[in-house]
Each structure stands twice: as structure tokens, then as C-alpha cells.
Fold this protein.
Amino acid sequence: MHITREELNKTAEDILSKYDGVTLTAKDRAGIPVQEMPAQDPSVRITNMEEVNEGYTEAQVKAEALRCLQCKNKPCIKGCPVGINIPGFIAKAAEGDFAGANQVIKESSLLPSICGRVCPQESQCQATCTVGKMNKDVNKAVSIGRIERFVADYVRENDCDVAPEIKKASGKRVAIVGSGPSSIAAAADLRKAGHEVVMFEALHKAGGVLVYGIPEFRLPKKLVQHEIDNLKAMGVEINLNYLVGKTRTIETLMSKDGFDAVFVGSGAGLPKFMNIPGENLIGVFSANEYLTRSNLMKAYDEKHSRTPLWESKRVAIFGGGNVAMDAARTAKRLGAENVTIIYRRSEEELPARVEEVGHAKEEGIEFMMLHQPHAIVGDDKGHVTGVKVVTCELGEPDASGRRRPVEIEGTEQVVDFDTVVVSIGNTSNPLIKQTTEGIDVNRRGNFIVNEETLETTVPGVFAGGDIVLGAATVILAMGQGRKAAAAINAYLGDK
Amino acid sequence: MNKIVYKEQLSNDIYKIIIQAPLIAEARKPGQFVILQDGGDFGERIPLTIADADTEKGTITLIIQASGESTMLLTSKEVGDSYDNVLGPLGNPTELDNYGKVLCVGGGVGVAPMYPIAKALHNMGNEVKIIMGARNKDLFVMKDEMRAIADELILITDDGSSGRKGLVTEPLKELCEEWKPDVVFIIGPPIMMKFCALTTKPFGIKSYASLNTIMIDGTGMCGGCRVSIGDDTKFVCVDGPEFDAHKVDWNNMLTRLGTYKGIETEKKQECLCELKQKNEAR
Ligand SMILES: Cc1cc2nc3c(=O)[nH]c(=O)nc-3n(C[C@H](O)[C@H](O)[C@H](O)COP(=O)(O)OP(=O)(O)OC[C@H]3O[C@@H](n4cnc5c(N)ncnc54)[C@H](O)[C@@H]3O)c2cc1C
Ligand SMILES: Cc1cc2nc3c(=O)[nH]c(=O)nc-3n(C[C@H](O)[C@H](O)[C@H](O)COP(=O)(O)OP(=O)(O)OC[C@H]3O[C@@H](n4cnc5c(N)ncnc54)[C@H](O)[C@@H]3O)c2cc1C
Ligand code: SF4
Ligand code: SF4
Ligand code: FES
């Protein structure tokens, strides 16, 4: 049964009045039920692109904040890749001082409204939370991300975010390649240090995966635009339609255009395919293409967008990560009758965020676990008609610690589909490597960097985010952007 | 924002449009293209070859055929207007070399992207012969420019309204037999390129075709432009746009191009194929 935001708010208010003026023990706190995230009714939301999660009410934030024990050893902080002072901001939120809570978060993270929404909290900050441990269930940990999201939304909506202080002009110029989370973070920190910062983005809109990949219903584009506008207000120059390596090389930027240092945050924008027969049939898309058409090109708005979409009734999604969930839920919203995730391991091993899997299920996405696609089959017109799959069972754990899927002989069957979205991840785009002499990459094409400074094998050129980590997460990319910015500041100071 | 500084209607639905794009003009080489997006949030991203460039004025020349909604909208803009977004130069430049005898085959609006390639090859001292094909005489573009650089220019139309009557594959075959070019460059409608490739293949003459697949980003991110080349899958925007014409899986490319085509245009294509095949048999 769907529970409305009003009902959830009422529950929270009851909790608050129950404990008003009472001194709570740790057991009391851990015993308070998790405040559920209010969300659009599944039957309604599959007909629109609006954000699924509606966000906590003020009472819910306070009730959820009550659950935090303010642990002395602060294990949650170790789980957050950028080390946000979590008990610190939760304490302020509990008092209703959201502007203060925001300031605590902003000491470590620049994009809380985004990370609060898309971080895989269950494997990061919430994985190490004491309350989760007491309840023997990570999903019953303090909902750190939801509180973080509320705080960030509150200061944006009430216009009480603090404008960053910008140091006096240093006379140094830094170029930023790409405009994803690593680049946004690097640009902000470098600009604060007083450098002239110019960002170069290949697409016609800034934000990286946040605008072209992650769908509107999970991350409203106006939030990303807000962060981009903040950068502009700080004096960062943003050049769109500029493909570094083609429009100009990094070498030219440094020798001719007078950039003293470069940060490369070009991401992992190269789609992987399975290399199975039939992958070039009509109706087979990479998740990047499928999502870009819908998000960046706004093809979901059929009335207005000029970018066409392939009409689908039965969609197969290959893969089990966030990208696969996004593709599946997008397909549903674009009108597919049946959407099936085909994944070769079991549900336990699904790499997607727990919330995403839950939402997908509520929306009627089907899960075909322990199946491996062998081929895509088509008709004489070259259109997809089905997928040949084989059943798997789980064997011994592999290098990643997850149990390896083993195909069971004689189980091959063809299942009917008219569309296939290959969502098995991305690797790094080779363009910068190809056009920049001296950049060394590893076997997977990721840049090799100095672990401390994130400097590449070309002096003055630093890199971070997915181009270094392989396809990772927003918060890791942001953290690397900040780390590289600190190193660039030091590098420019010495120069 | 990229301002339109010149516009000329070359034929019924083909326009020459010169726009301001100084960085692209400086960096571009023959064979490369741009992606143009206009009309706010909802505009489509359209790949177009850079037909010429002027580094001093900082402009590039586009030859656009108004074949669908987006290209019609792009060509309906006037001098003084601007396009929102132009990205480039994209793709790999043509492999220019001293080949000796070079044969260029351009069909329809494909003559435009052929021009900078033929010009560069001519300037390098190659002997350049050019075959230009069109449905009728009104559809020839850049005839004078081509004549100025060609050692021989052969015009051919489907209806015989200018030059020879027939299809480009006919003079192509004759020249392969008699003149024996060292290399052939082919740009035009995919169906024409397919039959040109089939024509040169028995002669074992190295042939390059410039592929015009459906694209979105043009940076290698979406894979929408992928084609089968021999046993490999390649992305036209970053691995191409030129490929060994004998290795291209033309039928797959033709079907993929038709992904968003309505039934009507599909019929038209089938009809075109039939005509070509009839011609082959003849
Ligand atoms: C569909 C999808 C869903 C995801 N969901 C989640 C999630 O729920 N939670 C999470 O934490 N992470 C998620 N991720 C991963 C996360 O989005 C990435 O890890 C993160 O965006 C990486 O940031 P980045 O700064 O390295 O680069 P990106 O965000 O990839 O941005 C790179 C930018 O650089 C531009 N660029 C590339 N080359 C050039 C060049 N040569 N010149 C100029 N510009 C260039 C690109 O156009 C792009 O805009 C998801 C990823 C995808 C694809
Ligand atoms: C690398 C490259 C260079 C190109 N250079 C030029 C150029 O210099 N001048 C020019 O006029 N066009 C060029 N094209 C083709 C041009 O991009 C398409 O004609 C255009 O995208 C059609 O858009 P539309 O929305 O107006 O038409 P649509 O409504 O999308 O389509 C109209 C008709 O054109 C077909 N079509 C759609 N996309 C393409 C395509 N990419 N190639 C061929 N046919 C297509 C459709 O199937 C349909 O029959 C190039 C394409 C590529 C990939
Ligand atoms: S940034 Fe992410 S990991 Fe860190 S506290 Fe916030 S939600 Fe948790
Ligand atoms: S571990 Fe959990 S309970 Fe302890 S301080 Fe962190 S969020 Fe609060
Ligand atoms: S156009 Fe997207 S990869 Fe080539």
C-alpha cells in the first residue's frame, strides 16, 4: 500500500511529541522506526518524469535525526568518501538549524543536494552506522542521505546558502575538461583560491552524467543547473561545445591559451557492449544512447522534442547496476508494456543501489535473475525479435568476492523482446589519451596518476573522477575533484 | 552562439550556409564534420560535414540538404541569425597522400563534403578525376568549384538532364577498367556508396567511403553511430567517418539508418534498391 507524505508526516509528528522533553537512551533512539521517504505513488509516477522521491518533511527530518546516537567514535564518517562531519550536521538538523547543518556539510562536500539523492548510502556512510548495527540491518541505519538531501534542498529553497569567499586574483589560469561532478568540484575549489577558471564541455549542456545519464525522475535537472549557475556566479567561465583534443588539444591550451594547469574530468563515457551476435540489429541501444535521447535530448517529451525514440513494447535490459535500473525505469515511463532486467547473478549481487531496485520493483520492472544473454535475434528487416538466454547457477566466489555465475548446459531459450538496452557499464573515452602526448593509461584505459596529487604523467595536467577510477560514483568523483584542486593550488603556488 | 554570415539556395532543397566558428575553422581538416544543435532544449543534434573553411574570417561552410524536420528548420534561418550550438571539428581527417591517380565519386549533396578532400588531393599533386552524380541537373552543387580542381569532371544524372544519363557506377566501372585509379573516395547516399563499393571491389582498388550514420553526441559516448567493419564494430564519429568501403557491412548500415524512418520512406528505399539492382543486371 502506498503511504502518502501527509501520513508519513503525521507519524513523525507523533514521534516528536512522544519524545518531547524526554531524555532518550541509545536504545530508545535506535528503536525509533526509520522515517520512510515519501514518494509518488508507483502507478502514477510511471506515467510522468517527475522526481519519484518527494523529500522528507521538517518533522520527518527531526524524527530521523533523533535516531542518531552522536557516537563518540563516529564510524559513519569513515564510511563517507569525503568524510562529512555527519553527527555534526545531524545535531544541527535535530535542532532545526538547517542553515547551520548545511555549513557543516559544505566543509567537506560541495554537492549535497545531489549526493543526498544518488549516493549508494547503504554501502558507504550508512554501512558503518551504529544504529544499523544495533538493529542488525543496514537499512535501519540512520538515513544520513535523506537528512543531507533535506538540508541542501532547504537552503536552496530558502536562499540561505553561504556564498563562497573568493581569494584575490592569483594571476593563474586553470582549464577544466568536462563538467561532471569531479569537474564542478575542482572548478569551485580552484576558483575560491583566486585562479581564473575556464571549463570546457563537449556537449551543449553542462553537468556530465548528471544531465545526460541519470534520469530526471531520480535527479531533477534544475538541481544540476543550480550548481552550474553557482559556478558561474563565482566567476567560472563555462565553454560548451568544446571537445578538448579536437577543438583544441591540451597542449595548445597550455602553450597558446596560457593555461598554467589543466584538470581532466572527462568521465567514463564509452559504452561497453557484450560482443554477442545481433548487437547491431535495429532496436539495440547502449544505455548511454537510450538515456541520452531521453534526458539530454528530452525525447520523452514527444510533443516538443525533435529527437526521435524507438517505440517499444517489450524491453530487455542487460545488466544489474544503477545504469540498468535507470534504463529500465525510463523504458517503463516511455510506454513499454513489459520491461525485464536480465542479470547473470542473483538478486543479492545486484550492484545497483537498494532504493533503485526497490523502486524498480514497485514500478513493475521484471527481474530475470541468473540468466546470461547469448545472442540477440532479429527478423528479415533487421529488427530485434528476441534474446537467446541461458540459465546460470552460482559457483565459487570470483576475484570480486561475488559468487561466479556458471551456465547450465542445455538451458538455452529465446525470449521475445522488441528492444534491447545494453547496460553493462562504461569504460574511459580514449580521446584525450589519443590527442595528448605523454598521458599514460592502464590496461582499462584509465589515466595513471600520482595517488597523492592526482597529477598525470604530463606535468601540470591533473585528472580525477571516472577517467581515473573507472565508472565509479558521484561522491568519489567529487572527492577526487577536490583533491586534485588542492594539489593544483599547491602546484601553482610553487610555480 | 554561431552567427550565419552567408546563405545561398543551391537547389530546390540544398543550401550553402557559412557560419562563424573561428576555432573550428582553425582546427578542421578535410573529411571532418560538426554537430549542430539549435532550437533550445528540444532541438536535435545534426551532423554536417565541413565543406570549406576560412581561417582569416573564422568561418566554416556547410552544405545542408533539407531532408527532414530538423534540417528544414536549420535551413530556414537567415543571415544574421545564429545557431545555438556547433561542436567540432569531429571525426578523423581524410588520409591525404600522394596516391598518384585519385578518383572521387560524389553523389547528391555528398559532393559538398567531397570538395575539400578533392581540393587537398589536387593541391598535393595527385591527378584527380571526379564523378558527380545527381537525380537531375538542378541538384548539382559546387559544380564550378569542382571543375576548377579536377583533371577531368564527369557529370551524370538519373534523367540525363545534364551530362551523361545513368548512375555513377557506370563511369566508375569504366574508369576502373581503363584509367585504373590508385584510390577511390566515395561520398553520397548510403545506397550509392554501397554500389560504388561493389563496383570497385572486383578491381581490388582501395576505396574509402564516408559514412553518414545516425548520431547523437559525436564524441564516442552513445554508440548510436556504430557500424560493422569486417568483424569489428566501429563508431563512425570517432573511428571514422571514412572506412574501407569493401569492409563496410552496407546492409546493416542501411537498415540501421532506417531505424526511425516511417513505412513510407522505407518503401521509397526499397524502390531505390530495386532500381539499382535492375541497373546492375542490365
Ligand atoms: C546512468 C547512470 C547512472 C548512475 N547512477 C549513479 C548513482 O545513482 N549514484 C552514483 O553515485 N553514481 C552514479 N553513476 C555514476 C556517476 O554518475 C559517475 O561516477 C560520475 O558522474 C563521474 O563524474 P565525472 O566528473 O568523472 O565525469 P562525468 O559525469 O562522466 O562527466 C564527464 C563530462 O566530460 C565531458 N567530456 C568528455 N570528454 C571531453 C573532452 N575531450 N572535452 C570536453 N568535454 C569532455 C563529457 O561530455 C561529460 O559531460 C551513474 C552513472 C550513469 C551513467
Ligand atoms: C558525418 C556526417 C556528415 C554529414 N554531412 C552532411 C552534409 O554535409 N550535408 C547534409 O545535408 N547532410 C549531411 N549528413 C546527413 C545529415 O546529418 C542528415 O540528413 C540529418 O541528420 C537529417 O536530419 P533531419 O531531422 O532533418 O531528417 P530526418 O527527419 O531525421 O530524416 C529525413 C530523412 O533522412 C534520413 N536520415 C536521417 N539521418 C540521416 C543521416 N545521418 N544520413 C543520411 N540520411 C539520414 C532519414 O532516414 C529520412 O529519410 C551527414 C551525416 C553524417 C553522419
Ligand atoms: S556524501 Fe554520500 S556517503 Fe557522504 S554522508 Fe552524504 S550520502 Fe553519505
Ligand atoms: S554512526 Fe550513525 S548513530 Fe553514530 S553518529 Fe554516525 S549517524 Fe549517528
Ligand atoms: S554519435 Fe554517439 S558514439 Fe558516435
The interface with chain A takes residues 23-24, 27, 37, 39, 41-45, 69-70, 73, 84-90, 216-217, 219-224, 226-228, 233, 238, 249, 251-252, 255-256, 258-260 of chain B (CB under 8 Å).
